[in-house]
Design a protein that fits this description.
The structure holds 2 protein chains of 2 kinds.
Chain A: E1 5-7, E2 10-13, E3 19-24, E4 31-37, E5 44-50, E6 65-69, E7 75-79, E8 88-95, E9 109-110, E10 114-118
Parallel strand pairs in A: 2-10
Antiparallel strand pairs in A: 1-3, 3-7, 4-5, 4-8, 6-7, 8-9, 8-10
Chain B: E1 4-5, E2 10-14, E3 19-21, E4 24-25, E5 32-39, E6 46-52, E7 60-61, E8 64-69, E9 74-79, E10 88-96, E11 103-105, E12 109-114
Parallel strand pairs in B: 2-12
Antiparallel strand pairs in B: 1-4, 3-9, 5-6, 5-10, 7-8, 8-9, 10-11, 10-12
Classes of the chains: A mainly beta, B mainly beta.
Amino acid sequence: GAGVSQSPSNKVTEKGKDVELRCDPISGHTALYWYRQRLGQGLEFLIYFQGNSAPDKSGLPSDRFSAERTGESVSTLTIQRTQQEDSAVYLCASSRSRGGAVIRNTEAFFGQGTRLTVV
Amino acid sequence: AQKITQTQPGMFVQEKEAVTLDCTYDTSDQSYGLFWYKQPSSGEMIFLIYQGSYDEQNATEGRYSLNFQKARKSANLVISASQLGDSAMYFCAMREGTRDDKIIFGKGTRLHILP
């Protein structure tokens, strides 16, 4: 597709269950990001994939969170043993490579997000 | 430490007035990019404008302009002739030029345009 696609758009799960969120980035975009946005709040960085480099996992809030990316395509964010504080919108974004030392216009394109509700 | 600081959690502006949304950033890199995004109540993230650290002129895109003051590490968004549809959350973001080049966001400013 032309844009970043996320699925599901909404997910309601019971506390303690595992959930898997999917992101399909724009073709050719080497960079992929996951962010969490709680209601009325800003974007909290979770994890960043750039090409074949090791992912930057510095934003993952606990070891219950993990993410994988297959090459330069689909990514999945997995939350194990969900807690109520995990309720949020999870946004995925992709962008072109920054192309060397001088940053070119490499804005992130966002998906519509997955609204996760843990009950 | 915060790399992107937006000091205005909320703003109210009369329709047709110009509005400035503040953003300061912190980086030791010489090469970096700055971005502004708009998030209306629908939740989508809309890219507005980009400024590169080496760009000599301030970026402009229609009614949006970026007041880039490199020495002060400031990248304020200016919206001219505000419209009701400008009511939204606005986020400033930065991408640094080092290997650690993920895009990070400020906490945002909620803008309300009054009729």
